[in-house]
Amino acid sequence: xxxxxxxPFFYILFLMLPIYWLVxxxxxxxxxxxxxxxxxxxxxxxxxxxxxxxxxxxxxxYINSIIYVSLNTVISxxxxxxxxxxxxxxxxxxxxxxxxxxxxxxxxxxxxxxxPFFQLYSAIGLFDTHIAxxxxxxxxxxxLAVWILEGFMSGVPKELDETAYVDxxxxxxxFTSIFLPTIKAGVGVAxxxxxMFSWVELLLAKTLTAVEAKPxxxxxxxxxxxAGYELGLLAAAGTLTIIPGAIVIYxxxxxxxxxxxxxxx
Amino acid sequence: xxxxxxxxxxxxxxxxxxxxFNALVPLMTVVNYSVQExxxxxxxxxxxxxxxxxxxxxxxxHASLGRxxxxxxxxxxxxxxxxxxxxxxxxxxxxxxxxxxxxMALPMLIPWNVVGSMWNIFTLPRIGLxxxxxxxxxxxHYDMTQQPVAAWITIIVMDVWHWTSLVVLLxxxxxxxxxxxxxxxxxxxxxxxxxxxxxxQLPKMKTVLTIxxxxxxxxxFNIYTEPFVLTGGxxxxxxxxxxxxxVKIALGQFDLGPxxxxxxxxxxxxxxxxxxxxxxxxxDDQE
Lengths: 265, 287
Prior knowledge:
Chain A: It is a multi-pass membrane protein. Chain A: Its main location: membrane. Chain A: Belongs to the binding-protein-dependent transport system permease family. Chain A: The chain crosses the membrane at residues 5-23, 66-87, 99-118, 130-149, 178-200, 231-252. Chain A: One of its GO terms (cellular component) is plasma membrane. Chain A is an all-alpha fold. Chain A contains 14 helices and one strand, in the order H-H-H-H-E-H-H-H-H-H-H-H-H-H-H. Chain A has a domain at 67-216 and 239-260: MetI-like (MetI-like fold, Orthogonal Bundle). In chain A, helix 1 (6-26) crosses helix 13, helix 4 packs parallel to helix 7 (130-153) and helix 4 packs across helix 10 (184-200). The longest helix of chain A is centred in the first third of the chain and has 34 residues, at 56-89. The two termini of chain A are 30 Å apart. The model of chain A has no long low-confidence stretch (mean pLDDT 87). Chain B is an all-alpha fold and 287 residues long. Chain B contains twelve helices and three strands. Chain B has helices at residues 8-34, 50-57, 59-89, 96-105, 112-123, 129-137, 148-176, 180-188, 193-221, 225-230, 242-252, 256-286, and strands spanning 3-4, 36-38, 44-46. Chain B has a two-stranded antiparallel ribbon. The model of chain B has no long low-confidence stretch (mean pLDDT 86). Chains A and B meet through helix 1, helix 4, strand 1, helix 5 and helix 6 of A and strand 1, helix 1, helix 3, helix 4 and helix 5 of B.
């Protein structure tokens, strides 16, 4: 092993330490956590996980999150596909301004929108529903999906489209049976990043829900403040939220940089 | 190259409607509040630019804006050089590449409130791994609920932990796109490591590095959840960043006017940096 590999090695070690601590904590009993320091769980317990999987307040948090995140991913990618195609293939009035305006929404601070979002979604009677959070997250996920997909589509030569038209394909048939399969990696990456950014967001999801659609993140913060020192439970809930990302990340490993850079790498 | 076609607007329309609904309606609400005074009961009075003047002159705003810039500045000067160094040291091919990529990306995929909770658990005195190590093994008094300096160091280290990988992954993507022939040519010319970095690697990383810096600037400027969960803005107001302060005013005190004026000033700064980002990006597309 070359000595320079020590740099990424120690960096990854640094990244893994807090994660290890969270996971280790989730297997400890409350007594052990408060009783003193131990590097490994002394009395290994699954009690914290059992609590989460049997208590509806907890497991409904996960179900709610998964519902609105999935809804959001489907909506974002579905509407972003034609738009990204338009941006990558055509010039039209105001295209550059529109593309820029989309970006500003990806960059907008969620805190600015928290209160008006609450009022808007209350006014149209969607407060505390899954669709409200799914629509609200479109604010930053649609721009993200459009930018990522546009990046992938611009890499496909225009000759593909022209050949298809010469061969007598109609636009819808060309788009679904030729174009989509060509950029399926891009669709996967866009979907992954929409899923991820909706999954990690808390402020808007918390503002727009109360009971019925309360996300896991909100359940966690409320537990943290109300129940005091339920650290083991909190750690178990946290560990479970890492799993979806950890599973899917392997499949998009070659596109992580592209996705985070809005398709511009 | 691209053909002119106004019908493309129909393709963009669904996106336009959805994003406009989410962006313009709330934005207009904010604009509305920012120029009016309310005493409840849904009665509003014209206030003009009074709130803006008040906010721009208020020491509280100056303080949180100052803390915000300090935070953003600190994480940039740590994350960017560190990210470049790690990207340069990473293996370019072989079994360990995907392992590194996946492990490094992991922190970025963790929900932001969990990042806060995780660091809270990690740094608790006596209970947390880091807190125990500093207090009981090294004998350094460390308690971020009491010491502003400790709280600051913790949120900066947390952000470095959370987002340095973004810089690493982007720089790495730039580095692997350099053909081997460049390195061979440099070797024949007898170029030093520094010269290889300065004249081959750095120019190739220029674009990705610009993206990384601007993204890190924007996202750290908008940061809310992680420091809110970790320190709640405390001790005192010492780690109250711009977003935290804004949410305190808007949802905590329900001072709609000042909160709205502050939102618009905040948004204007964000807009300016987005414009910078866009200009640099499109300039590159044309080259």
